[in-house]
Structure formats: structure tokens, C-alpha cells
Design brief:
The chain is of the alpha/beta class and 643 residues long. Strands 9-10-13-17-18-19-20-21 form an 8-stranded parallel beta barrel. A 6-stranded antiparallel beta sheet has the order 22-23-24-29-26-27. Strands 1-2-5-4 form a 4-stranded antiparallel beta sheet, with no helix packed on it. Strand 23 (532-538) and strand 24 form a beta hairpin.
Length: 643
């Protein structure tokens, strides 16, 4: 094979500079080619303002003599082909800028990087992994996630669980421990905090340097493939927390890559992210668009990722450091282009935007003028409900609208309800410790909060540790407080979470019409004096509905009247006050007969016992035909979930 066949084509280069080379990782970076008995390693980078580039590494004792890259076009693409197999070699680029500055940079497209604190790239092949998730991938193509249950477990790999020595679990060890745990608790997806290579553990991956390198902290790229493969084989999707808006400014990374700001905006006010100390990607530049969109395709193609939660979308929609919220047209067009290209490539990929603003049509399709996300994090709901829960119960009547306001806009976007890592760090307290009152009250209100969240329209995301009732806020340098499961109330709240997710996943009324007005209806929205809320969740089937009751005070009511839509028999299908969940045991054990008495504007009503800080789901008793021994049919009543 002649060496010149390894050169990029003019068409590839045109697409790259135009912003439309969505497989640019197959051109740039380090790639090994084999033919017959010959092996070549090709290195390719983009550095338009460099005057000279040499390859340095452990193979030449960091002396680039004889390893000069050749500039192949005027726009700054450089290439070197080494006539040997360099698999496993550690390398960087020695770049001489136009100002004569010598810079050592890691490869922006490297598939593997050294374990921190080392910062060099590693020549690595992503071949030779045999996937076993074919059934999952086929089913994913046919799935309508909008009308499916979704409850996502957000995980920081480095602090979910550790060895007794304090060392991290590897990707393969996580496969054997995290996946069964997630499955047991009924979660549909795992969302991983950023796993791209990053120099500082305390950044949690949000300040990355190696966008194409899965972090070496926990193993190799193939180890991470194994983790995802095992998730899929156990019916669990994997979502990556992804940061295409800003990047780390460490010396070996993208910042001033060739002595100039080729990945970030030229203007300091637009480039410098004062909040995080990072640099903002220049999203109007074609080469940056090719880099970032290719990165998304890379995780989809090589790692079978099921979706992306895009961090800090507001930082893309609006120009940074501007109080007046000036819309960034480059950011808007980038988001539309990204979401459109991904959905055309694979419509099953979930695109989730973490946007804290009221920018319209975030989840509307691009062809209708929207940004094209599948879901938007409902930050308003999160802020309101946590503020409400932190309000002393006797004062909640004055904060009544904190619960009701979200339903005024709940169907303007396709929302996901997040209780994420951001809410349990930096002195904000854990979810359990946010709850006011004494020990028992805290657990009761946590169960109530979770119940209300699962009954509220929108998909669900919760950060690890909530399910064991962790008292301490998240400690990123330590594992979760697993010892708490040895204590009764923590074990009971864990049981409650398992039952809540199980009930949610088998109750179509709680998710089928998540994003439509038809799926929700208030029964009583105005009972501020007692801080009791009642509403109906409905499925596609007219007969599929649930009555939801939430009592946000510590006062119990042995008899509480609620309006209902049908003259039916009802039964309590779920109560947070069961003794096995840590409650007081004030439950409705018997069938509840509806009365022909109008109430709450409804034609009929029921009387139920309402526990303090109680969350209850009341389900109509359904009728079904069952065959009995003589072959005749007999109608029997039953309540789903109560056999």
C-alpha cells in the first residue's frame, strides 16, 4: 500500500472545515493501518497557526527529530505517517506557534490517555470487542421513550462505591456490582457524570481535556464497552453527561492549542467562562462543530451510548457573562444542527438538555423552529419543590403555589424531573436532611417527596444515595454511606424506593401521557389550609386512571373526603405510611366504596384515611373475566398490585 493513500481527501477536508465531517475521529488522531506484512501509524491534527509540529513520546525519548508532521492544506491540517505499529505508545505534539512559543499538547482526538496526573495521549485501537447487546439495540429502535417509563439513576463512578483501600472500582467491577443494584431498584437507565478524560478528580469530569478518551481512572476503553454491554444485556440504558459548551484550560488540553484560540472564541468576553474558570467552545467555527458532533457520534458508534444529558445548555443559548441574556446565534444553530444530525442518524438516541432558563421550544423539533431536544430538565419544578419541602410544615400554606406552579407549564416542553448531584453538594444538604422536623418526620417527608415526584408528569432522574436515605450530602472523595442500610429506617426507605419504582413502571397512568394535558387533572388544588393536594393521573385507556393524595403536614386525618370521577370500588394501591416503609401504619386496608355524593366538582366521592406526611395512590378496582374449572366465565374484581 502506498503511503499517500493514507492522506485525507479534499472532500474530507472540505467537510471538516465546513463543520460537516461527523466522523472526523476516523481521520484525526492516531490510527493504525495494516496491509500484508506492513503496519503504519497515522497521526493527524488541526493546528492552523502552527509553524512546525513534531511528534514526541516514549518511543523517541521525547525528542521529535525526524518526526515532523507535514502541513497538508492552507487551513492547518497536519499529518505524519510512521512506518511501524505504535500501539500503546505514549505521545504528545510539540507545536511551535507563530510567536515562536513551544507548546506540548495531548491529542484532541486520542482514544486513550494516560492515568492522571500524567497527561499524554496513548495510541489505542478500539477494535476487537465483541458486543452481546444485539437484542437491546434492535428493541431500542422500536421504542417510543416519550410514552415509556423512565427513572434514571445518576451516578458518579468514583464515589458510588470504593474498595476498602479507598481505590476506585473498575468499569468491570462496576458491571458486577452497580448493574445488579440498579436492576434491583427498578431504574431504567444509568446516567454517568462525565467520563471523558479530565485532570482533576474534583471537577467530576465537567472540565475535560480528552473528549474522545474514556477516563483511565477506571480502566480501558474496552472495559467501558464491557460495562455498557452488560447494562444493555440486563435491560438498562446508559446516558452520558456531556459537556459541549466549555472545556478545561489546563496546559496540555485544547486551550490555546497552537498558541491561539482555535477551539474557543477569539474575544475574551465571549471566551472566558468566569463562573467555572473554563473556556467556551467557538460554536460558530466549522472545525469545532465537526469536533463536537463527531464526538457524539463516536460515543454512539463505538460505545453504544443510548443518550446524552447536555450540561449547561444556558451557557450555549446565551452569551456568557451577560446579565441581559443576549442570545448566541452560533449556539442556537449548533444545538439545532447537533440534535437534527443525531436524530437523523439514530432517532432512538435521547438528547436531554439541562437548561435553567425559559427559552422557548427547547424540545420542539428543529423543523418546527425548536432546538430539537427530546427532554428538558425541569429546573423550575426542582427549585420550587425543594424550597417547599424545606419550609416548616406549619408555614407551607403560605408557599402553596410552589407545588402548583409547575403544572401551569408542565406541558409546554417534554420535561424530565431532576433531583441531581447539584442539589446535594456545597452545603445544600442531602435530600433527607433538607426535610424539616425530627428523625421520623424527615423520613416520612422524604417518602412523600419521592412519591409526589413519581406522580408528577415528567420523566424522573435522581442522584445516587437518595435511595438509602443518606444524611450527609454527597462527598465526592468518599463512597456512599452504605453502612446506613444496617439501620432500620434507612433499610425501610430503601424498600420503599424499590416498591415505588416498581409501581411506577407497571402503571401506565403515571407515564403514558407524561407530556400531554390529558394525562393530568387536579381534584383539589386549593386546599392550602391543610396543605393537601389531590389529582388524577391518566393513561391512554379511558379506564386507566389513578387518584393521587399528598398530605404535606404532620397532621393525620382518619376520614378525608375526596371527589372522584367514577362511581366505582377503589382500593389503596400504594401508601408511603406502611410500617414496612417506616410509616405509622395508617392505611386503607379495605375496599373503598364511592358515594353518590358530589365533591370537589366531581359527581362522586370517597372517604379515606390520610396519614401525616402521607403519599397515597388510590386505584379503581378493575373487573376482568377469569375462566374457572367448568369452562364458564366468572367476573372477579381485583386491584392491580394487591393480590
Amino acid at each position: 500500500m502506498a503511503v499517500n493513500t493514507f492522506f485525507p481527501t479534499d472532500y474530507q477536508l472540505h467537510l471538516f472545515h465546513e463543520g460537516n465531517l461527523f466522523q472526523s475521529h476516523q481521520l484525526f488522531g492516531a490510527h493504525i493501518f495494516r496491509e500484508a506484512e506492513r503496519v503504519y501509524t497515522r497521526f493527524c491534527i488541526w493546528a492552523p497557526n502552527a509553524t512546525r509540529i513534531r511528534l514526541v513520546g516514549d518511543f523517541n525519548k521525547w525528542n521529535g527529530e525526524g518526526y515532523d508532521l507535514e502541513k497538508v492544506n492552507n487551513e492547518g491540517v497536519w499529518l505524519l505517517i510512521v512506518n511501524e505499529d505504535m500501539l500503546g505508545s505514549v505521545y504528545k505534539y510539540e507545536i511551535i506557534s507563530r510567536q515562536g512559543e513551544k507548546i506540548l499538547k495531548a491529542d484532541p482526538y486520542a482514544f486513550c490517555s494516560e492515568l492522571r496526573p500524567n497527561t499524554a495521549s496513548v495510541v489505542h485501537s478500539l477494535k476487537h470487542y465483541k458486543w452481546g447487546d444485539h437484542q437491546w439495540m434492535q428493541q431500542r429502535e422500536k421504542k417510543n421513550f416519550s410514552s415509556a417509563p423512565q427513572v434514571i439513576y445518576e451516578v458518579h463512578i468514583g464515589s458510588w462505591k470504593k474498595h476498602e483501600t479507598g481505590e476506585f472500582l473498575s468499569y468491570r467491577e462496576l458491571a458486577s456490582e452497580l448493574i445488579p443494584y440498579v436492576s434491583e431498584h427498578g431504574f431504567t437507565h444509568i446516567e454517568l457524570l462525565p467520563i471523558i478524560e479530565h485532570p482533576l478528580d474534583a471537577s467530576w469530569g465537567y472540565q475535560g481535556t480528552g473528549y474522545f478518551s474514556v477516563t483511565s481512572r477506571y480502566g480501558t476503553p474496552q472495559d467501558f464497552m464491557y460495562f455498557i454491554d452488560q447494562c444493555h444485556q440486563q435491560g438498562i440504558g446508559v446516558i452520558l453527561d456531556w459537556v459541549p459548551g466549555h472545556f478545561c484550560k489546563d496546559a496540555h488540553g485544547l486551550y490555546r492549542f497552537d498558541g491561539s484560540h482555535i477551539y474557543s472564541y477569539n474575544t475574551e468576553a465571549d471566551r472566558e467562562n468566569q463562573v467555572w474558570g473554563t473556556a467556551n467552545f467557538d460554536l460558530g467555527k466549522g472545525e469545532v462543530q465537526s469536533f463536537l458532533i463527531s464526538n457524539a457520534f463516536y460515543w454512539m458508534d463505538y460505545f453504544h451510548i443510548d443518550g446524552f444529558r447536555m450540561d449547561a445548555v444556558a451557557n450555549i443559548i446565551y452569551w456568557p457573562n451577560s446579565e441581559e441574556k443576549r442570545v448566541n446565534p452560533f449556539g442556537i444553530e449548533f444545538l439545532r444542527k447537533l440534535n437534527n444530525e443525531i436524530h437523523e442518524y439514530d432517532p432512538a438516541i435521547l438528547m436531554i438538555g439541562e437548561d435553567s432558563t425559559d427559552f422557548p421550544n427547547v424540545t420542539a423539533p428543529v423543523h418546527y423552529g425548536g432546538l430539537g431536544f427530546d427532554y428538558k430538565w425541569n429546573m423550575g419544578w426542582m427549585n420550587d419543590i425543594l424550597e417547599y419541602m424545606e419550609t416548616p410544615p406549619f408555614s407551607r400554606s403560605n408557599a402553596h403555589s410552589k407545588v402548583t406552579f409547575s403544572l401551569l407549564y408542565a406541558f409546554t416542553e417534554k420535561f424530565m424531573l431532576p433531583l441531581s448531584h447539584d442539589e446535594v453538594v456545597h452545603g445544600k444538604k442531602s435530600l433527607l436532611d433538607k426535610m424539616p422536623g425530627e428523625y421520623w418526620d424527615k423520613f416520612a417527608q422524604l417518602r412523600l417527596l419521592l412519591g409526589f415526584m413519581f406522580a408528577h408528569p415528567g420523566k424522573k432522574l435522581l442522584f445516587m444515595g437518595f435511595e438509602i436515605g443518606q444524611f450527609s450530602e454527597w462527598k465526592d472523595k468518599e463512597q456512599l454511606d452504605w453502612h446506613l442500610l444496617n439501620y432500620e429506617m434507612h433499610a425501610k426507605v430503601n424498600t420503599y424506593v424499590k416498591q415505588l419504582t416498581k409501581f411506577y413502571r407497571r402503571s401506565k397512568a403515571l407515564y403514558e401521557l407524561d407530556h400531554l394535558h390529558e394525562g393530568f387533572e387536579w381534584i383539589d388544588v386549593n386546599n392550602s389550609s391543610q396543605s393537601v393536594f389531590s389529582f388524577v393521573r391518566k393513561g391512554i385507556n379511558e379506564d386507566d386512571f389513578l387518584i393521587i393524595l399528598c398530605n404535606f403536614t404532620g397532621v393525620s386525618y382518619p376520614e378525608y373526603k375526596v371527589g372522584v370521577p367514577a362511581l366505582r370500588e377503589y382500593r389503596e394501591a400504594l401508601s408511603s405510611d406502611l410500617i414496612e416503609y417506616g410509616g405509622s401504619g395508617l392505611v386503607n386496608k379495605r375496599t373503598i366504596m364511592a358515594l353518590n355524593e358530589p365533591f370537589h366538582g366531581r359527581p362522586f366521592s370517597i372517604n379515606v384515611s390520610l396519614p401525616a406526611y402521607g403519599f397515597q395512590i388510590i386505584r379503581p378496582v378493575k373487573k376482568r373475566k377469569e375462566r374457572i374449572g367448568n369452562g364458564k366465565e366468572k367476573v372477579r374484581s381485583h386491584a392491580v398490585g394487591r393480590r
